[in-house]
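From the shared-data thread, chain only:
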Amino acid sequence: MSRIVVLGDVMVDVVVGLSGPLAQASDAPAEIRFRGGGSAANTAAWLGAAGAEVTLVGRVGDDERGRAAVDELRAAGVDAQVALDPDRPTGTCLLLIEPGGERTMAPDAGANDGLAPEDLPEELLAEAGHLHVAGYALLREGSRGAARAAIERASRAGVAVSVDPSSSALLDGGFLDLAAGAGLLLPNASEAHALTANSDPEAAARSLAELFGEVVVTLGPAGALWTDGEEVLRAAAVAVDRVEDTAGAGDAFAAGFLKERASDASTAEALAAGCRLAARAVGQAGARP
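Structure, as tokens:
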């Protein structure tokens, strides 16, 4: 199995489990917890849980929260090559979880905005079989240069590259240029719609495959689909007794899919593995295994 390098955000999540709708300008009882987060860090943690060889490249603040985040990732089996930023605090994200599991996020990038090209050493990239870039690293101006440099260096070295667009609310057509060089795009249905203005996931995926070669669109309870622009494969979602929290489901799917790909599994097997790991994610509280 080849090593997967994941590049992008490491966050501390402040998870607010709402008991009901927010009461504007008043009180809404909630359960509040602190957990590790960040799309890249979550994907790396799920890869570690799936048994993959995985390295995470990112940045945290030189503070207690950042050091704890790195320790937690290493305990989960991740080779966390995470720089300590002396000027910025560790990134933090407020997650509002509604009854039923849907989530709304308000992130403060913090040290993630300091990600630099030198945070991904040449020798590490030379040992990698795959580079996965969390889209937040491309969407944020502070980390964009480092993410673009990583994609370009990987492409020149013949290392396969995948990109997760990360956030439909932040996407526009310019993201397609930022992700250029990736051979695999992993949007969810709303992200695919935002990138193509096409509300049909399969049609959107076929359109995106003209630019990226392969596209996997996650469809929530409808599973996932893959296309190379010609063939289309679908996988059913795995049923869960109760949806606890959808945070991290897409990251878990990506981890399951990429781990099987790194093991030379078929595309159908990789899709099924992604759906299994996503089901595990939504059936528990928190974005990490």
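The domain at 3-10+38-89+112-282 is CATH 3.40.1190.20 (UDP-N-acetylmuramoyl-L-alanine:D-glutamate ligase).
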